[in-house]
Amino acid sequence: MFRSAACQLLLSASSIACLFLFNSPGSVAQVAATANIQATPEPRIVPPSPNYQFPNGEKFVYVVEWHALNAGTATMRFDVDGSEEKLSATAATSGAVNFIFPVRSWFNARIDPKTFCSTQIFKHSEEGKRKKETEIQVDAVRGKSILDEKNLKNGETRHEEEDAPSCATDILGGFFYARSRPLLPASDEIFPVVDGGKPTVVRARVEDREEIKIPAGDFHAVRVLLDPVSGKFQGKGQIWVWFSDDAAHTPLQMRAKLQWGTVMFRLLRIEK
Question: Per-residue DSSP letters for 9-24?
């Protein structure tokens, strides 16, 4: 149980920690969610407006808390890389959690800045004694998500191809895709996410505006629920994100409600 928690806690942490709903498969809530998504428009990625600015050169540093324990740190950063945007993230356990089950992970995604479509995803994860690397390529022409994974301990490899939308975000880019949207009161939209395996459809719903206190300071924020309603993450948890209530829509705080507890991510600082 703790191993599963620790793994999701920190690359799941820094990577949408996360798009994991708490309902068990086959539950009434899950069936209802599936019925709702069938009644909604086709999930899609809306290209950013011409004046949208990616937070290039900024590193968001978060403290991670689990059951009131300081579980570690997570970072996210955007940089220009040729004609694409490169989104990088790291996650590392600390304190008691690190002593019991150390996690060191990093994540990179490449995103087309004109469309917000993710084109390539790379993950390196070290969880206890397990080490693996995963690469996912999105073939928009063939409509495929191509996963190649290698176990760095024994050399075993895995190759999978799944049907995928021609344009989708990834589990970390989804935070920033939501950030790019207007976040109007009570707005509700759905978008596709690829992470190898069956693509996930996520519903983003603006719930409220409120003031929050985090290590980085006091902020007026917009609370958004990101809810996986179909695909590989359906039925495993929910995540709320608090974006700053201004033009920047800075991701200030995240709360993931999972089957084994609640994980919080609070912005500590922004490094430039």
Answer: HHHHHHTTTT----SP
